[in-house]
Amino acid sequence: MATTQRPTGTAQHQPPEREHLRGRLGVPHLVFTVLAYNAPLAVYAGFLPVVIAFGNGQGAPTTFVAVGALLLIFSVGLNAMSRHMKSPGAFYSYISAGLGRPVGLAGAFTAFLSYVLITIGAYAYGGIVAKALVENLLHGPELPWWLWCLVFWAVVSVLSMLQIDVSAKVLGISITLEVAIVLAWSLAVVVRGGPGSHPLDSFTPTAATSGSVPFAIIFGVLCITGFEALAVFREETKDPVRTVPRATYASVALLATLYTVGSLVWLKAFGVDGAIDAGGTDPSGSFTGSVKTYLGSVFADLVSVLLVTSVFACLLALHNIASRYVYTLGEDRVIPAALGKVHPRFGSPANAALTVAAIMLVGFAGSAVLGIDPLTVYARAQAVGAVGIIMLMAATALAVVVFFRRHRELDVNLWQSLMSPVLALAGLATAWYLAVSNMDAVAGSSKGEATLFLVLGAVVILAAVGLALVLRRLRPEVYRRIGKQDV
């Protein structure tokens, strides 16, 4: 296939001024990033009991098995296509190559906005858990939630500008502690027993289809995300062709296993009715209380501390992902080129990281100035952002199909190029439809607010498509850069 020579080509011959991001990330580092993004301890304390209480109750473990299988199938086509994507733009690159530059740019803007919203929500949650830790466990001063957000923000902003290896080490330590505590609690419940029934009862058709299956599916998908963004770290990995796919599969499998086991343990520790009651009234408090019952007060206090470090690790992972979206768009000159510069010493997207930090500061500080309750910020920002990610996954699955139909010369099999992405598209499109149809329940908002969220999302998409069309007409050299479609 003929290629067009561009002043800042991204294929085999780079001009002297073009610098790559630097790092030597391996599979464990990327897996830690995905685990940090999902904050497994926070999921155990918050999301799992909510899926049980408001989803399909005893059938929650089946939901996580099904969602894990769906996302593994999605990963097949994603990884097959990633071998032919030279840009660390993830959704941006995939959708551009498959569905065209205007749709690809809309995907980039939607992805960035989604990650920003998820991050702002995480800041709000971080303020809540840090405030609770200082006041209740440490008996410290009563300070506003946003002040603790500011502490998180300062540390995360500095680390996000350093070489990615530094962040990876920090994430690795935090995630190891998180996983250790949830496994210790799970093992204690299994060994000592509880009022719950036999685990296999959760996998019967009656249990799997009980309660609100759509709600369970939506939140099940929301619990296993972040893996789709690993491609943004391609330039910073030792061997991206092998490392990124392996980390993707490992992340999805590990998260699905953790949450399947976690939901089974919740049901065992509390019993079906008790788990539903606990998840519907005080999930975090019930989890901490259960840890105290099975492991003792020291471990319960440790959970309170690790919830704070869990949110910190999540924020660092999110900052790194969002920064690399800004970096890629800057490198493509869609936004100011300075944002696509690499730090000469750290090999990081420092300018992009600073920009993301400024946006986050405005986000949570603005919420505080407006007097919005942090729980409201957390629930709505995270929900809207996650629904955007599900939509982008569905669009990417479609892009994989179209891409390989156009490039039949590429060495892929039918399962990779057609069957797996079509199956993933069907499942993800269904999940997205369920989320949009129940947006008020997902975001914990009124129907009017839910409609406003969807309208604003549509405006962002249309604005991005419009910008791409303007660039095609007025700045064709920039338009050609969109998505770095180097096949």
Helix and strand content put the structural class at mainly alpha
- The radius of gyration is 22 Å
Our measurement of the CA-to-CA distance between the termini, rounded to an integer number of angstroms, reads 8 Å
Instruction: Provide the β-strand percentage band.
Output: under 5%
Low-confidence stretches: 1-17
Could you state the oligomeric state of the chains shown? single chain
CATH topology: Amino acid/polyamine transporter I
- How many domains make up the coordinates? 1
What is the count of β-strands? 0
Number of helices: 19
Largest sheet: none
CATH class group:
Mainly Alpha
The second-level CATH architecture is Up-down Bundle
| Shape estimate | globular
Give me the CATH superfamily: Amino acid/polyamine transporter I
SSE sequence, one letter per element: HHHHHHHHHHHHHHHHHHH
Mean pLDDT rating: 86
Helical residue percent band: over 70%
